[in-house]
Amino acid sequence: MKRKTIRIDEEKCDGCGLCIPSCPEGALQIIDGKAKLVKESFCDGLGACLGDCPRGALAIEEKEVEEYDE
Questions:
Q1: How far is it, in rounded angstroms, from Cα 64 to Cα 47?
Q2: N or C: lower Cβ tally within 10 Å for the chain?
Q3: CATH topology of domain 2-64
Q4: ∠ CA 36-16-14 to the nearest 5 degrees?
Q5: How far apart are CA 56 and CA 10, in angstroms?
Q6: Is the separation of the CB atoms in 35 and 17 below 8 Å?
Q7: Alpha-carbon distance 49 to 59, whole Å?
Q8: What are the residue boundaries of the structural domains of the chain, listed by start?
Q9: Mind listing the pLDDT tens digit for each residue in 8-66?
């Protein structure tokens, strides 16, 4: 299914974790010092986490991913 989801630029991410509490779906975690999307079906694609990244490592993209699990 093609839909919007978060993309994380690992080169820009410094692992600060500011994006984690902003995600109401719990789709993001810090793993090995970087923010990671733990499961694509958890991401609602609305981008609540975008504004909290001081390094601009987060973006919304449209791609083939699992269906959003409400």
A1: 17
A2: C
A3: Alpha-Beta Plaits (3.30.70)
A4: 70
A5: 11
A6: yes
A7: 9
A8: 2-64
A9: 999 999 999 999 999 999 999 999 999 999 988 899 999 999 988 999 999 999 988 87
